[in-house]
Fold:
Amino acid sequence: MPKVPLRDGRSLHVHVVGRGGPGRTVVMLHGFGMHGAMWLPLVAPLAHKYRFVLPDLRGFGRSHGVDYGHADVIGGHADDVEDLLEHLGEERVLLGGLSMGALTALALAARGGFRRVAGYVHIDQAARIQNDAHYTHGLFGPEQPARFAEMRALLGEVDPLRDRPFDALPARLRERVRGAFAKFLRSAFRPAWLKTATGAVHREALARRVFPVANWPIYMDCLRAYLEQDYDFRDALVDTRTPVTFMVGEASEMYPAEGQLELARSVPGATVVRFPGVGHAIPVEAPWAFVRALSRALDT
Structure:
């Protein structure tokens, strides 16, 4: 199942690994700047009893060339996941999401799309992106005003040039784009060595391995959606009967832990797994603890 057809005539690339019977299929949704293959070493220890379906979400991995088509990026991802679940044709599946993938799952739940979801694993994602006077746990927490201002300034510079190939952009602007994504990724990690390694993404040779640039405006469209769309899913799971496990990086810089715990408290019977000293990218920083927690969640 390398390709899944979508409602707009496009398709997603999907990795499939493992052996699972009815009710033992697990769909895992990756975060921004990642792709489905990121899960492979993490799900391999569980592949003897589950079948893992790992899509490259629109704009990423081998689905890099698939445009969003409209401004609501997360809503579009939710459409694609609905199409994927329909394509699988299974009565019930298990679902997991990290960061943007988890936000997509919340969007799916908010529209009643959990009817086929037998269990859900929510990995380090707030229910709301934008902060206001009453909510301060969105993207980047207290740093959001300054970080969003930087993102808006970058979008203002690149928008008039979005029809150009990336290599045709002025060198200074290419460097700004790479630097913005390096800074974004650094926020995902807590350990200094991972921040240093991720910061190297601003170098052109490495950046091309992490971010394909054939369809570079799609990254800008994703950033714009976070700035302009009202992504607020605090009520998405309030009435769910689906068992939910929350994995929270207590040192997450991307999404303050308290906002995630607040969401967990709104879900009756939710299980919370806290990762002390771990940042946003829980599967990367604490892989063995993550695999153990995922195994327990899937077996629930």
Summary: The chain is about 40% helix and 15% strand. The longest helix spans residues 73-88.
